[in-house]
Each structure stands twice: as C-alpha cells, then as structure tokens.
Write a structure and sequence with these properties.
The chain has eight helices and five strands, in the order αβαβαβββααααα. It is α+β, with helices and mostly antiparallel strands and 229 residues long. Strand 4 and strand 5 form a beta hairpin.
Length: 229
C-alpha cells in the first residue's frame, strides 16, 4: 500500500519475511517520512471508502478527504507515499497567489512520492542519513493541485508503476503504518499504569484495531509517554 507524507517531508518483496528483514526496513525511517499523518485520527465517515488506483481528476473538497483517500489507496496497494514537495496556501500567498482558495484545502500543491524513491532522510536525532535499504530509485507518485476555482484539490497526474515488490506483511510492519493514534496511545498508557502484561496489550490492540504493534512500541510508551523514534 502506498503511503503519503506531511509538509516538506522528503522522505515491499514476495519472499517470506524474517525479523531481520523487517528490522532492516524499519531502520532509519524518521517521523518525517511518515506518509500518512497518523497523529490525527481519520474519520471513517469523512468520505467514501474508495479503493483502487488513484485516478486523474479525482477531486476532494478538503485536505482531510484527500488524506482519507490516500490512506485507503495505501492500504489497497501495500505501498507508502510521502510528500516529496508541497506548497501550503500560506506559502503560495507569499509568492503572489491572490485568488480565492478554501482554507480547508490547506495545500496549494503536493507531490506524493513512493518512499522507495526520492531523497534520503537525515535523522534529526543522530544527524545520520537513513539506511539505503529503502532507496531503489522508484519513480511512482502523483501530483495534487488546487482547482482553478479554489474550491477543491484534484489529482493532476499519476505514475503508479513501482520498480519493486509490494507485500501486505511488510507494509503492515512499517513504522508509518503501525504508528499509534493519540487515542490508542492514551489507552495503552492507561493499561501500562495498571501494570497490564505487554503481550496481552499487544494482542488486545491487534484484536480491536487489526494494527501491527511491536512490543518495543509498547515498551517505549511505558517510559516516555510517546513512541521513541
């Protein structure tokens, strides 16, 4: 499934996955790379559960609806996208754009790119470049622009051809996908305060949400209140 990213963030294989494979894929992926903004819950009723490929001229009357569509597409295609380039409405104003644009659109333009292509990320914590494991020159992506009347965002063009395998198991183990929402974090922290068994918490999360959460994710919340990167 393809995943998509937040403002100015630059920055799967059909073989059986080993723990080593998954760890290699996870190394070096900072929160900047997260293709879907999981810090804010997406309303299931925000838009139709559109599945299938992103289509040229699809339009969205808010950025929230676009994010929901992207999330559905990522889950459908087992691939992750990030915002390789984007321009907010505020920034567009600074360079002379004066026409009316609905504030709920948030962005003037966005270029979404597969995480297996584009620039390499540099960790804010260590200052080191991320592992090259993720980078293989994939050119898959799509562009989103504001419509002429400023009332919607629309898909301007697409390139959905990847140069790598995409598999469901690896997708669900990606840090961007398994990241907990604020609501889920609060629930887990409450259970940890009650000294609940971490493995049972992990099983509960899987049962209630279908989300893959590693024991280390739960362990990190136990001490910091937030997931360590």
């Amino acid at each position: 499934m393809e995943i998509i990213y937040e403002e100015d963030a630059t920055t799967n294989d059909d073989e059986e996955l080993t723990e080593k494979d998954i760890n290699e894929k996870q190394d070096g992926v900072s929160d900047e790379e997260s293709s879907v903004d999981t810090d804010e819950e997406l309303d299931d009723d925000a838009c139709e559960n559109n599945l299938g490929d992103i289509r040229v001229n699809e339009s969205f009357t808010s950025f929230k609806l676009l994010r929901k569509r992207v999330k559905n597409y990522q889950d459908f295609s087992n691939s992750v996208f990030y915002k390789r380039d984007c321009k907010t409405i505020k920034r567009a104003r600074k360079i002379g754009v004066k026409r009316h644009i609905e504030a709920c659109l948030k962005y003037y333009s966005i270029h979404y790119h597969c995480i297996h292509g584009g620039e390499k990320f540099q960790s804010k914590a260590t200052g080191q470049r991320s592992s090259s494991t993720f980078q293989n020159g994939c050119e898959a992506g799509f562009n989103v622009n504001v419509s002429k009347d400023g009332m919607s965002l629309y898909i301007k063009n697409t390139n959905l051809q990847h140069n790598h395998e995409r598999i469901k198991e690896l997708y669900h183990h990606l840090p961007q996908v398994r990241k907990m929402t604020p609501k889920l974090k609060q629930k887990v922290k409450g259970l940890l305060k009650l000294k609940a068994n971490k493995t049972r918490i992990q099983d509960l999360i899987s049962k209630e949400t279908g989300k893959v959460v590693l024991l280390k994710d739960i362990h990190n919340l136990n001490y910091t209140g937030e997931e360590k990167e």
